[in-house]
Amino acid sequence: MPLLPAVALLALFMLGPVLWSFYGSFTNAALTGVNAANPDWVGLDNYRKLFADPDFPKAIWLTVVFVFASAVVGQNVLGVLLAMLMRSSQKIIRVVVGTLIVTAWILPEIVAAFAAYAFFSKEGSLNSLLAIVGITGKSWLYATPMLAVILANVWRGTAFSMMVYSAALNDVPPEITEAATVDGAGGYKRLIYITLPMIRRSISTNLMLTTLQTLSVFTLIYVMTAGGPGTNSSTLPILAYQQAFKFAQVGYGTAIATIMLIIGGVFAVIYIRTLKPEVD
Amino acid sequence: MSQMTIAAPRQRFARGASNTILIIIGLCFLVPLGWILFASFDTRATLAVEWPKNLSIDNFTAIMTVDQTWRPLWNSTLLSTGAAVITVLASILAAYPLSRFAMRFNKPFMYAVLFGTCLPITAMMVPVYSLFVRLNLLDSLWGTVFFMAATSLPMAIWMTKNFMDGVPISLEEAAWTDGASAMVTLRAVVLPLMRPGLAVVFIFVFIQAWGNFFVPFVLLLSPEKQPAAVSIFAFFGQHGAVAYGQLAAFSLIYSIPVLGLYVLVSRFTGSSFAMSGAVKG
Prior knowledge:
The structure holds 2 protein chains of 2 kinds. Chain A is mainly alpha-helical. Chain A is built from 15 helices and no strands.
C-alpha cells in the first residue's frame, strides 16, 4: 500500500501530538522532577487555572490584535496595493521592489527577526533615520512592543499576499475593466465595483491563509521582545512556550496549546467548508 | 502593458505616482535588509544601518570556526536534506494512488491533508516536546527529521498530487498494456515527466526546514546537534550586545543557500513569484 509511509508519518507526528495535547492538558506534567516522568491526572485544573489567570485573556486579546493588524489589515491591504501598483509601474522598479519584498519573506525567520530587532532597537535604524529629521525616537521594543512586532510581521509576510494578488489580478480579463472605463467609471470606482469583486475568492482564501500563518508566529516575537516587557507582547504561542519551558509547567502550557489547536482547527474547518478548495 | 504605449497625460501621471509610491515602500523594505549586508562588512557595526566605517571581511573570518559556523551549517544541511528526501518520497507514494485511482477515501483523505496544512504547528510544540520525552526521541536528529518531514507532508502531498495530475495518463496506459506494474510505471514513466515539479516540492520543504527555528530549538538540546538557526540565536544571546558585525555575517552566510534555492525554483516554474501558486487555495 503506497499510502502507508505518509499515513504512518502523519499519524505518529501530526495526529499523535494533537491527541497527546488533549491528554496532556489534563495532567500536571512538569519539565523536570517526579511530575515529568509520571504526571498525575488533574482533570480540568489546568483549564480552571487558565481562565483565572489574567495573562490568558490578555494573551488572547494580544493575539487577536496581532493577527488582525498585521495579517488581515497590514499584509492584505499592502499586498493588494502592491500588486496593483506593480501593474502600472516601470518594469525595472517593479522587479527591484518585488525582489526586496520577496527577500524579506524568503529569509530564514530568525534572520528576519534579527533584522527587525535591529531596525526597532533604541540605537537602531529607525531612530537613526528619525534623528536625521530631528526627531528623538523612543525605545520602540519597550515603549510600543505590539506596534513593533506588528510592523515587523507586515514587513516579513506581505510578499505572500502580494504574490497571490498579483496572480489573481492577472486573471481578471482586461475587457471588463476596459468596458467599465468606457462607461465612465474612474479608477476608484473600477477598483470597488469591478476589480475587488472579481478577485474576491483570492481575497477570502488569502485572508484565511495569512490568518492561520500569523496565528502561529513565534520566532519573530520571541527574538524581538520575548513577549515583554512583562507580558505586553505575549501572544498565545509565546505564553504557551513560557509556561511550559520557563516556568516548567508543561501541563499548563499544553492546555494553552490545546486551545490554540482548537482555534486553528475551527479556522481551518471554516476555510475548507466555505471556500471548498478543489480536491479532485 | 501594451495599451499604455500611447500614454495620455493622465496615465503618465498615474504611472509616475505608482513608481514613486513603490520606491518609497521599497525603501522601507530595504532598510532592515541593508543593515544585515552593511553590518556584516563592518567590524564596528552598530544596530543602525550605515555604510561600513571600517570595511573588511574580518567578521567573516572571525566566525569561520567549526563550532561557530561549519557544524551548525552541516547540521542544518542534514536536517533539511533528510526532511526533504523523506517528504518527497512519502508524498510521491501517497500522491500516485490519489492522482490515478478513483478510490472511496480519496476525498476525505485530501480534506484531512488540507486540514493538516492549516494546523498551527507552533501550537503543537509543547505537546510534541512531552511526547518526544515519552518516546525517548528528545535530542535525536532523526526524531527531529521525521517530525519536520511529517509537518511538511500535507503541503507536499497537495503539491505533488497537483503536479502528478498534470502528467497525461495515456502514456501510463501504454506501459500497462505492455505489462508494466503500477510501481514500474510510476518510476519509469510518471516521475521523469514531473521532475521540475518534484524539484519544486523538494526545494519548498528544504527551505522551510532550513529556516525553521522553533522546532529544533525545542527538540534538539545538545549544542553539537543544533542547526544554524539555533546556534545563531545562542550566539545572539551570548555576544549579541557586542558583536553585531559577526551576527550579521553569520546571518548572511546562513541565508545565502535559501536565497539561491529560491532563485533556482523560480527558474523551474518560470516566474519570480514561484511557490505562491503552489499555496494558492
